[in-house]
Design brief:
- The chain is built from 23 helices and 15 strands.
- The protein is of the alpha/beta class.
- A four-stranded mixed β-sheet has the order 1-2-3-4, with helices on one face. Strands 5-6-9 form a three-stranded antiparallel β-sheet. Strands 7-8 form a two-stranded antiparallel sheet.
- Helix 11 packs across helix 13, helix 14 crosses helix 16 (400-408) and helix 18 (454-467) packs across helix 21 (508-520).
- The longest helix is centred in the last third of the chain and has 19 residues, at 537-555.
- The radius of gyration is 34 Å and the shape is elongated.
- The termini are far apart.
Length: 569
């Protein structure tokens, strides 16, 4: 076979590979600098797995003084979703994972573009022609045997992934037979002429999986489809070579295709980059472990965390926690350090599939939000609600001082409150602080402790209502609550109650709990004194009155005469 003649037959207009090597000069980098890339396909949203890989790419490049770039792999036109590439980039930028160079949506930056694969077709043709001239690729006309396009597409995909057949019958076509088919305008796919036998193995060191023995590729994998577009195998080998990629961080689903990709590098005579195949993020579903699903799990989509109002830093630190197990210990020792100071390493990524854990994410997020000043929380909440909850936005935009007062309760100090996991839950978390959302209409809406009688609740609320004075400092306010204890059989301190519980109905904590529930509907809230000060006497008085009325309606009777004792200290 005259392979050079065959190459001219298949790609008569293709340039030489030297032409492109002259354009794409070798990168000038400092010793040890890593060039990493993220290459999303615009066939859907940015998956959390891709975000995790982007984080690893960015930190690896930054730590080594290298480059992180984004390349859009959009050659699968039939599956492409309009605007998906820009959405992916927006997500990267939102989470501060934007690239140093490459695809930027409407523009791009860098000397190795285009960074959109559909704009690099002449490059792939040049390298395809070169591979044919080396006798390592051949045209396959088998597609014409079956006119069912979807079946052919699935077949090509299966072959690319190594799922079916090895040697293709078209590799035995003579030059004359190929010429005849081309004269008949028959389209062809280009396949690798594999030299493997499916038995011999070789050793390969993955940056995560370590050194493994891999069976050499024996499949004539598709390189260019029948429609002329390259598949991932060819495109990433060419692009990563021309763009100077030193380290490829990708999902472990690609590991089964690795031997084919490495054979392709070898066929070209190129040095392959280092590979790191990251484990798939999983979750537990009905007691069974499975990977996060695009169809079933909203958290698989990075937009979910934005729509929920998680701080970007919380999401990044959670991903770091999944990637490097020592991040949690580092954070405990460096509570105020920026996460970028953590010594991330690909080698520390475990080979086991990490489990997505909302509790862990929420704890990280609560810790971060607890350290934010009230002003920032308010501004972030305005931005968030303007996009995702316009009703709440219309309420809080004119209540800045009130909201600052709310967010300042228990903020700061050695042990700040940690109750906010994301901005999306603030409205429900503090609904009792806004008249627009707080309107309990039956006694069951109040979480009173069932061990305390309704008669005691009534009496304590009636007596407390008489003592409300917005001029009281916190100590004076609490002394008034303590004064309510003894007349109704409650201990004035928790220590006395614990020592002799049989002598009391409860403690001062239970009495203040009655007041808390009457005002907020809940047993657990931030500092009650600060809540009362913020709501004001009129609102607090009305809320207590509402509870008393509901108790009266529910029981159908009311204590008309209660002996009012002097509870002023």
């Amino acid at each position: 076979m005259d392979y050079k003649k065959l190459a001219e037959l298949l790609y008569p207009k293709a340039k030489s590979v030297d032409f492109f090597f002259d354009i794409y000069k070798k990168r000038v980098l400092s010793t040890g600098a890593e060039v990493t890339r993220l290459a999303p396909s615009p066939t859907g949203y940015l998956h959390i797995g891709h975000a995790s890989q982007a984080l690893a790419c960015k930190l690896t490049a930054k730590k080594s003084g290298g480059v992180f770039f984004v390349r859009l792999e959009d050659t699968d036109q039939k599956r492409e979703i309009e605007g998906a590439g820009k959405i992916a980039l927006e997500m990267l930028n939102f989470f501060e994972l934007g690239p140093d160079e490459g695809y930027l949506g409407d523009t791009e930056t860098g000397e190795y573009g285009p960074y959109i694969q559909s704009k690099r077709l002449e490059i792939y043709q040049a390298f395809a022609k070169h591979l044919v001239s080396l006798g390592r690729a051949f045209p396959c006309f088998c597609e014409k045997r079956d006119n069912k396009e979807d079946i052919l597409k699935d077949r090509e995909q299966q072959i690319e992934e190594g799922a079916i057949e090895t040697k293709d019958p078209c590799r035995d076509l003579t030059l004359k037979q190929i010429e005849e088919k081309l004269e008949q305008n028959k389209s062809f796919a280009l396949r690798l002429c594999s030299e493997g036998d499916g038995v011999k193995t070789f050793k390969f060191k993955d940056l995560i999986k370590g050194e493994r023995e891999i069976v050499a590729n024996d499949k004539d994998i598709v390189l260019i489809k029948g429609n002329g577009t390259p598949v991932y195998a060819l495109a990433h080998v060419v692009d990563d070579t021309l763009m100077g990629t030193t380290t490829v961080i990708r999902g472990e689903e690609w590991y089964s295709s690795l031997s084919g990709h490495l054979e392709l590098f070898k066929a070209f005579g190129f040095v392959p980059p280092k590979y790191a195949h990251t484990p798939v993020i999983c979750k537990t579903d009905a007691g069974n472990k499975r990977k996060l699903s695009k169809r079933k799990d909203p958290e698989a989509d990075m937009r979910y965390f934005i729509k929920s109002g998680y701080p970007k830093t919380a999401v990044i630190e959670y991903l770091l926690n999944l990637a490097n197990s020592d991040f949690e210990l580092w954070r405990a020792k460096n509570p105020d350090a920026d996460y970028s100071e953590f010594l991330f390493a690909i080698s520390k990524i475990g080979s086991n599939n990490p489990m997505f854990d909302f509790d862990k994410l929420n704890n990280i997020s609560k810790e971060i939000i607890s350290k934010l000043p009230a002003q920032q929380i308010y501004e972030d909440l305005l931005t968030y609600t303007k996009e995702y909850d316009t009703n709440f936005y219309d309420i809080i935009k004119n209540k800045k001082d009130y909201c600052l007062g709310l967010f300042n309760i228990d903020r700061g100090g050695v042990k700040p409150r940690k109750d906010i996991a994301n901005l999306g839950e603030i409205k429900n978390l503090y609904s009792y602080m806004f008249k627009e959302f707080y309107n309990p209409n039956k006694i069951d809406n109040y979480d009173f402790d069932p061990k305390i009688s309704k008669a005691d609740i009534k009496c304590i609320l009636l007596m407390y209502r008489q003592t409300i004075d917005m001029n009281d400092d916190k100590q004076s306010w609490f002394e008034k609550i303590k004064a309510l204890c003894e007349p109704f059989g409650f201990a004035v301190d928790t220590k006395s109650f614990k020592q002799n519980p049989q002598n009391f109905k409860g403690s001062v904590a239970d009495v203040s709990g009655i007041i808390r529930v009457a005002i907020t509907g809940r047993r657990n809230t931030p500092d009650l004194y600060e809540i009362i000060k913020l709501l004001g006497k009129r609102e607090v008085t009305e809320r207590i009155g509402r509870v008393l009325e509901l108790l009266k309606v529910e029981e159908g009777k009311f204590i008309d005469k209660i002996e009012i004792v002097d509870i002023h200290p």
